[in-house]
Amino acid sequence: MPARPAPPGFPVSHNIPVFAEGIAGAEILARQRVHAERYGARILAGTVTALDRSPGHFSAIIEGPEAPTRPTYARRVLLATGAEDIEPDLPDLPDAVRRGLVRYCPICDGYEARGRRIAVIGHGDRGMGEAIFIARTYSSDVTLLTLGQRMELSDEQRERLAQHGVKLVEAPIQALDVQDGRITALRPRQGEEYRFDILYSALGLQCRSGLGSALGARLDGSGALLVDAHNRTTVPGLYAAGGTVRGLDQIVVAMGHAAIAATHIHNHCEIPTEDEPREEA
């Protein structure tokens, strides 16, 4: 089944094997739903607003049009709540990422940007590091935009930026122009104009780990859930996969996490959890 073309201006992923032409996120989800339902999965539209743990089971409160009227119970839970990219504060463009005008992962799709005029939105070590990575790997024309954030750089850091030809623009952005479905110019307050083919944001992301942390699951310094080799969190019976887990934030990695967790859950589905009483034979 070939991937359906994404709507114009809608971003697609080229980082999933066998989809050389790219596939949109909505298409991935639609295919996964069909696949899961073929094996008897029941998918509810709703939001888990609370997750509690009692001896022997978890209970979830779900809100939404298809949500049950009482809590949903399970002996084990797999969290796949993901992470949310921090969007750049660009004027008149609150949904830049959803429109495909700003990219987030040069490791994933930097090859497509090779030789282009590229801007990196960011500041601090993260912003500088990503700009240098792109400059030494994919393009000789890279500019670091801090959107008004002052960079306190050491002489060594300035030398590194200069060595890789990275230009630094610390002025706030007052206006931007969009042509042919991409940002082609940004104008700082001083009246200068900068044109780019591609923008990358290096502002990071926020993990949706609240359900796990509320149960006492350990987090790393970035707020991601810590898991073991079976993708178990530090809470017995609670697993996590994908962007909410510490590690590489890619769709194929999330799929691998889910496969590891699901296999461990399946292999132990008849064994009481650590705090369940074992039945006598």
CATH class of the domain at 87-201: Alpha Beta
Please give the share of residues in helix. 10-25%
Number of E strands: 16
Spatially, the strands of the biggest sheet line up as 8-14-9-10-11
Unreliable segments of 5+ consecutive residues: 277-281
Strand content: 15-25%
Précis, in short:
The chain has 281 residues and is α/β, with parallel strands linked by helices. The chain has six helices and 16 strands. The chain is elongated, with a radius of gyration of 22 Å.
Structural description of this entry:
This protein has helices spanning 25-38, 106-109, 124-137, 155-163, 210-214, 251-267; strands spanning 12-13, 23-24, 47-54, 57-63, 72-74, 77-79, 83-85, 102-103, 118-121, 142-145, 166-169, 173-179, 182-188, 198-201, 205-207, 238-240. With 281 residues, the protein is α/β, with parallel strands linked by helices. Among the domains are: 76-82 and 207-269, FAD/NAD(P)-binding domain (3-Layer(bba) Sandwich); 87-201, 3-Layer(bba) Sandwich (FAD/NAD(P)-binding domain), CATH 3.50.50. The strands form six sheets. Strands 8-14-9-10-11 form a five-stranded parallel β-sheet. It has a three-stranded antiparallel β-sheet with strand order 3-4-5. A hairpin with a 2-residue loop joins strand 12 (173-179) and strand 13. The protein is elongated.
